[in-house]
């Protein structure tokens, strides 16, 4: 029976070997503990039953559907709780692979949903037959050698990152978990811990700059993605460094990192969960005056908000062809038009429409004239819109703007929050314009 201190060293350390029995027992025990914690929190705060099949499902949409009506803080809490289990899983999987005579780089497959379960089952089978390992100490080296090693590490990380982006995003059209979680763990280098962390952060930043230079991405999305990349690069530097040092002397074990692009985007893909943004304004005009400016409205003044001036699509006007259900409304933006066939026409009360085509969500900031990264096409989709007019005392109107949208990009919670704020800013711009037009007509 291991003492708690030895359990912690086994789980979070890197020195204790992990044989197949230890891997099986602790793996099952920790999975059961994680399942119990998640199930209890989801039942208590979301009112849903978190079944074992939900827990084992590789589809992120399964979790999102169950948490759709949960408090907004529950999913971030579950993510925070999952972090130590993720660390333990990668650490023990790496050491089990080494103990079984395999390369520690197979632990990269731990980040691929579905494949990670297969990997864990396979690693429970082979007996211990450790290979000869590289010395695990910080050997002194000269400044030129350290600089050369650092530059090689940056170049290798840059190459792996760019190839991974090309394969995952441009070929497989998937901003996947493997891209965001697996790639940073290949950046660790066989240097002292401080240097490894610095090189990892520097490599991520240089790779981001390279994607702008090579016209793969624009400055807006790079700026939004860098906080995630930096946060993941920190543990990636530590674990990647351990993997590099534990590779067999004279082997090409670290070459497993070059296989990462081949496994990106292979995880199962479920339908993204829809989200709704609701914005409300009160207007000093009756519903019949407001209604006319909801159906169509003339040009808005040029945007002054930094968000829209930076390139995010801003609404400019609304027009309609026909009247009533079946008419087609067009909401023009600075990047194009949203096509909105009318599905509900309750005059002075409610206007609802589907969105069958949409403009690009932004014009990327870039040194080049035209940059069209794949995430501008289909990864954010507005699916439905609605205006509700509620009469208030004193001839006033409460106007509600509603938009339903989906985001199909990992990590979905992060990008969903960002998209929701952008949609809310668009609502504010449109509703304020409608209010100004309606109030101008009041005597």
List the helices and strands and how they pair.
Elements lengths: L3 H9 L7 H27 L5 H5 L3 H7 L7 H26 L15 H9 L19 H29 L5 H6 L10 H21 L5 H28 L28 E9 L3 H9 L10 H4 L5 E7 L6 E6 L2 E11 L3 E5 L25 E13 L3 E12 L4 H29 L3
Antiparallel strand pairs: 1-7, 2-3, 3-4, 4-5, 5-6, 6-7
Determine Rg (CA atoms, Å).
Answer: 26 Å
The profile of the biggest β sheet is: 7 strands, antiparallel
- Name the CATH class of the largest domain: Alpha Beta
Number of E strands? 7
CATH superfamily of the largest domain: START domain
Q: Total domains, how many?
A: 3
Q: Biggest sheet, strands in spatial order?
A: 1-7-6-5-4-3-2
Low-confidence stretches: 134-141, 248-255
Strand content: 5-15%
What is the rounded distance between the termini? 84 Å
What is the number of helices? 13
CATH topology of the largest domain: Alpha-D-Glucose-1,6-Bisphosphate, Chain A, domain 4
Order of helices and strands: HHHHHHHHHHEHHEEEEEEH
Helix content: 40-55%
- CATH architecture heading of the largest domain: 2-Layer Sandwich
Mean pLDDT: 77
Shape: elongated
* Structural class based on helices, strands and sheet pairing: alpha+beta
């Amino acid at each position: 029976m291991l003492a708690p201190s030895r359990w912690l060293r086994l789980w979070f350390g890197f020195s204790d070997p992990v044989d197949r029995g230890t891997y099986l027992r602790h793996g099952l025990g920790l999975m059961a503990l994680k399942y119990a914690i998640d199930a209890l929190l989801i039942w208590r705060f979301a009112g849903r039953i978190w079944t074992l099949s939900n827990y084992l499902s590789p589809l992120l949409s399964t979790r999102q559907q169950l948490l759709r009506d949960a408090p907004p803080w529950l999913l971030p809490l579950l993510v925070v709780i999952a972090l130590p289990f993720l660390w333990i899983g990668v650490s023990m999987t790496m050491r089990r692979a080494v103990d079984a005579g395999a390369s520690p780089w197979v632990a990269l497959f731990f980040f691929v949903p579905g494949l990670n379960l297969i990997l864990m089952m396979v690693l429970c089978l082979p007996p211990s037959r450790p290979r000869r390992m590289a010395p695990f100490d910080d050997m002194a080296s000269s400044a030129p050698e350290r600089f050369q090693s650092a530059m090689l590490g940056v170049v290798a990380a840059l190459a792996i990152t760019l190839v991974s982006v090309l394969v995952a995003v441009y070929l497989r059209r998937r901003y996947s978990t493997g891209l965001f979680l697996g790639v940073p763990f290949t950046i660790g280098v066989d240097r002292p811990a401080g240097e490894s962390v610095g090189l990892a952060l520097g490599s991520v930043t240089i790779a981001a700059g390279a994607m702008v230079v090579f016209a793969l991405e624009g400055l807006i999305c790079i700026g939004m993605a860098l906080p995630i990349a930096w946060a993941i690069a920190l543990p990636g530097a530590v674990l990647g460094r351990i993997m590099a040092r534990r590779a067999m002397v004279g082997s090409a074990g670290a070459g497993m990192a070059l296989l990462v692009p081949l496994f990106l985007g292979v995880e199962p893909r479920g339908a993204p969960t829809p989200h709704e943004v609701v914005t409300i304004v009160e207007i000093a005009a009756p519903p019949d005056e407001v209604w006319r400016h909801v159906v169509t409205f003339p040009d808005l003044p040029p945007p002054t908000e930094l968000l829209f001036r930076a390139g995010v699509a801003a609404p400019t006007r609304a027009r309609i062809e026909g009247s009533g259900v079946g008419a087609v409304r067009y909401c023009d933006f600075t990047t194009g038009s949203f096509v909105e066939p009318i599905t509900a026409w309750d005059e002075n009360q409610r206007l609802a429409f589907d969105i069958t085509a949409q403009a690009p969500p932004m014009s990327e900031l870039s040194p080049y004239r035209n940059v069209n990264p794949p995430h501008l096409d289909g990864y954010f989709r507005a699916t439905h819109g609605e205006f509700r007019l509620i009469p208030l005392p004193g001839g006033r109107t409460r106007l509600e703007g509603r938009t339903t949208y989906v985001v199909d990009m990992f990590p979905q919670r992060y990008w969903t929050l960002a998209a929701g704020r952008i949609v809310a800013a668009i609502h504010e711009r449109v509703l304020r314009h409608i209010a100004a037009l309606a109030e101008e007509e009041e005597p």
